[in-house]
Amino acid sequence: MELTGRRSEVDRIAALAVLPRESAMVVVGDPGSGRTSVLDAVSNRVSISVVRLGVNGSEARWPMSGVTSLFTALDDPRASAHIARLVRHVDEGLAAAHDFLDAVHALTLPPTLVLIDDLDRMDAESQELIAFLAGRLAGTALRLVATVRRLPSDGPLAALPTLRLEPLTPDEALVLARDMAPEEANDGVLAVLADQTGGNPGALREQIGALRREQLVGTEPIVLPLRPTPTTSAAAALVLEAAAGRDLDVLARLALVPTARVAGWDRDAVDDLVGAGLATVRGQSIAVRDPLVRSALYWSMPARDRREAHTELAASAAAHDDRSAAWHASFADAVPDAVGLLAVARSYAEDGDARAAVTLTERALHIGSASEAEHLALLGVAEALLAHRLLGFAARYLAAIRPFATLGHEVRRLRVQYSVQYLSGDVVHADELMMPFDVSDDAEAGAFSGLLAMVATFRAEAWEVDQARDLLHRAEPLEGRASAHTAEILEVARELVAAVDGTLPPDAELHEGLAAHRLLAMSDPALLMLAQSLSIAERSRSARRVFALVLARTNDTAPVWLEAARYLSAENEVRSGNFRQALRAIDVWEAGSAVVERLSEPSRAIAVAWRHFAEGRSADALDVVDHCLRQRSTNRLWGATAKLYALRGQVLLLDGRLEEAASSLEAADAIGRGLRNPAVLRHLGDLVEVYARLGRVDDARNTTARLAADHHARPSRWGALVLTRSLALIADDTTRDTSRRRALEVFQPHDSQFERARTFAALAAVAAPGDRARLGAAAAAAYEAAGLRRPLATPAPTVAMPSLGGTAMGSGPFSGPDRSGVVLSASTPGTPGTPRSAPDASTVLTSLTAEERAVVQKVTEGYRNREIASSLYMSQRTVELRLTQIYRKVGARSRSHLVALLT
Questions:
Q1: Average confidence score pLDDT of the chain
Q2: Is the Cβ–Cβ distance between 226 and 196 less than 8 Å?
Q3: In angstroms, how far is CA 763 from the centroid of its own chain?
Q4: Quick one: which H or E segment has residue 714?
Q5: Which of 103, 144, 320, 827 lies at 20 to 30 Å from 226 by C-alpha?
Q6: Of 24, 21, 29, 22, nearest in space to 5 by CA
Q7: 225 preceded by cis ω (within 30°)?
Q8: pLDDT tens digits, residue range 357-408?
Q9: Angle, nearest 10°, between helix axes 559-576 and 602-614?
Q10: What is the sign, positive or negative, of the torsion defined by CA atoms of 70, 72, 75, 79?
């Protein structure tokens, strides 16, 4: 299993192996934090010799047992000869330490990385000697890394460089939970476990193993807080041991409730706990900071004492904290009120307190009777969680709700269910809508027609235009009885379907010419669908204006719509070719969304991959795309899958990997063949270029003919630009010059600079040698104008393009194999896009700017990006950009490779 969430830590430790000097580091991590796994990853990563030393805690009572184990592990026959002398002189203090140092210097070792796990469990004498050695490694060929659970400020290791293993982020913990759990585990249950274990990998693994199958798949509720496991108890014990002398009785009572109002607690005790890092205050609420500590304290209290404390706290909280009172009453009352508890859970979800909402909901499921009233209250919780885009939690509780007999309630359930499926990147089958519905009430008619409109938009986004129109046709008889909001949703749903089909009316015919007063009166989802329709129809300026209206409503807009607006706004800028604005929009979007969501939903993953590609990290872009394609292997999200293959093909094409690009683009073409609007997938121009450069003339000609037919049926500006480029690539001798000139002259100042650059680059590949450098330079300038943070150079041509009539279409060679069996020629020196070999280290240093050299210096010293940013007074994003520029100048593949090249 790949190590999750510790990449930067592994990078920093692995950097020790290539530093020009010997060094040492202490890795500090709680029980279960993954110290051993990090050392495993490091040992598999570095190229020098590695010595692993595990500490047996039972040997700590034997002086010098740790040093004996270290010398025994070193690959030098003279090491064992020093052991007896060291043991005899262990009581001689400083003299013994110098004897130890001399013994290590006497060894003849290659560069070696010594990894000691749990050094703090070693005997005290060995700890002191190894700490003494760690600060004096010069001339020993050793690098030393040791892990400990705690690092006392007055201990022997305190003076060494320290790396702290922080808890995993919620995103990372959820990714790890998915890797650990069985395939059938419910994603919402895993999200609960990831949150309740506080980012501790060891505790998470134990909790997954402790749950029954019924709990893992979500058919039974989970008891929260989770019962402590050995790792939970050990981690909590260290925290509570460090808090000795604090008022832990108050903390123990606070552990009985997920969150409480500060007003009900002793203010001095609260301030003391917050100051010690044991509790957190959010607004007017207070909670135990570490869920592992809360778990240990909660379950350490006898059951009778817990019930009595709940009864007392329920009475005291009734006057000032009705939500805490409801929680405590669920333990104290003979007949708990599950519906009331779910109402409180919904209020927590609406406030954005997911942990409290989930805790109360699980409790309600545990004490409830699964009545329809409880299911209706549970649906309210799911709606609130969806509004905050907490999709895993919402899906977990939707699975516990049975279909309702009342149409209005059932439509609500289906609306939430379909929305969660769509936003999670799953197929929305909507089989329930195939059944006839008896709609007699006007309110029910409006709700049902709104549901049909919503699913129609999902179908349109999946390019299933005919099915979308069928659903909207079914809604027409109900439209006259629908509310104004539902009628608005139906209108914009029709516009979205028309945009995907390439038939969206002009702006002047939409909402009174997109008048401000009409737009301001529209709801957030309606505005988003309108903006997306305009974006698909290549009206990026109008779309940008509508997206801005949604983003300006920050205080009144649900997080789910804000996230969608940020993402779709970024997608609009990518589609328009405004890459500078696109990268800024993606920065904003990524700051407000979760990694898990970005990589699980295909269209979101496309934005992440595109960002890597635009910043020159093609390998990272392909990794994201391939990961998402693997995740989608069993789903029918054909539109998203086609987009992934199209992006993969474009990245490979611009990297010069033509055969692979052809395979990916052909896969996109096969999936999207039924799409009538070529401007949606935008893959045909890339496919023509790949075929042309591979010498597959007939394929290039046939694809161009398809593009021309589709464009004439549904014209667009993108189609006009790409069609002229494609015609230039397949032109014969009689029309070559004219078609290539037309391909460049067709561009207007407002057109996409990226497509302009693509045209220059494609023509450079087929141009005569004398024109190739000029066109390549123009392509690089256009890429820069488009806002790419590193210009993408034209891949080197390598074989001649056969003409349609048997004569060569161009004298320049093409990259890729010739289908007729012609032997490929080598890349011409100076050809645009020819890779440069990695320069000599001394040359590299002189080619770097002063700021880049400062960043390199920090990298060689083992600093992480966040630490580099802090020490050089720049943002972390700036550090990442500087490293990207440095990698490109040096020819480095990774951080450790960079250090190796420069040392």
A1: 84
A2: yes
A3: 37
A4: none
A5: 320
A6: 29
A7: yes
A8: 999 999 999 999 999 999 999 999 999 999 998 988 999 999 999 999 888 8
A9: 50
A10: positive
* Residue 263 amino acid letter: A
The per-residue pLDDT for range 89-117, each reduced to its tens digit, is 555 555 666 767 777 777 777 888 989 99
Percent of the residues in the chain that have a pLDDT greater than 70, as a whole number: 87
Per-residue pLDDT, 903: 60
Confidence class for position 87, pLDDT limits 50, 70, 90: low
Alpha carbon distances (Å) from 53 to 66, 67, 135 = 9, 10, 19
Arithmetic mean of pLDDT, 318-343: 95
Percentage helix, strand, coil, to 5, in the chain?
A: 65, 5, 30
Tokens, residue 598: 């970005």
Alpha carbon distances (Å) from 774 to 28, 159, 801 = 56, 59, 20
**Residues 6 or more apart in contact with residue 743 via CB below 8 angstroms:** 724, 725, 727, 728, 759, 763
- Own/partner long-range contacts of 893-899 (Cβ < 8 Å, ≥24 apart): 895/11, 895/15, 895/859, 896/11, 896/14, 896/15, 896/17, 896/18, 896/45, 896/46, 898/856, 898/859, 899/15, 899/18, 899/19, 899/859, 899/860
pLDDT of residue 807: 34
Say what the alpha-carbon torsion angle 687, 691, 696, 702 is, to the nearest 10 degrees.
Answer: 30
Q: How far apart are CA 832 and CA 778, in angstroms?
A: 10
pLDDT in tens, 627-644: 888 765 435 577 888 899
Q: How far apart are CA 850 and CA 886, in angstroms?
A: 12
**What's the pLDDT tens digit per position in 160-208?**
889 999 999 888 898 899 889 998 999 889 999 999 999 999 999 999 9
Report which of residues 438 and 545 the model is more confident about: 545
Which amino acid is located at 668 in the chain? A
Place of tokens 């209020």: 347
Distance of CA 560 to the CA centre of its chain: 17
Task: Quick: pLDDT tens for 406-431.
Answer: 888 999 999 999 999 888 878 888 88
Vertex 350, ends 458 and 218: CA angle to 5°?
65
Which pLDDT band holds residue 143 (cuts at 50, 70, 90)? confident
Which pair of tokens denotes residue 358?
Answer: 């989930």
Among 389, 380, 167, CA closest to 292:
167
Residue with tokens 């123009």: 778
Q: Which two tokens stand for residue 17?
A: 């192996």
Q: What are residue 624's phi and psi, to 5 degrees? A: -65, -45
**Cβ atoms 882, 876 nearer than 8 A:** no
In a 3-state reduction of DSSP, which class is residue 314?
helix
Residue indicated by tokens 């450790």:
896
Say which range, 332-346, 373-387, 389-403, 871-885, has the weakest mean pLDDT: 871-885
Q: What is the pTM of this model?
A: 0.77
**Mean pLDDT across the stretch 848-866?**
77
Residues 16, 23: contact at Cβ < 8 Å? yes
Rounded Cα gap, residues 185 and 395, in angstroms: 13
Phi-psi region of 568 (alpha: psi -120 to 50; beta: other; left: phi over 0): alpha
pLDDT tens digits, 752-791: 889 999 999 999 988 888 888 888 888 888 888 888 755 4
**Rounded to whole angstroms, how far apart are CA atoms 260 and 325?**
9
What's phi and psi for 304, nearest 5 deg? -65, -45
Can you spell out the DSSP letters for 139-199? TTTEEEEEEES---TTSTTTTS-EEE-PPPPHHHHHHHHHHHS-TTS-HHHHHHHHHHTTT
Task: Provide the 10 A C-beta neighbour count for residue 269.
Answer: 17
d(CA 14, CA 8): 10
What does residue 582 show for φ and ψ, rounded to 5 degrees?
-65, -45
**Residues sharing a CB contact under 8 Å with residue 444, sequence separation 6 or more, in sequence order:** 407, 408, 411
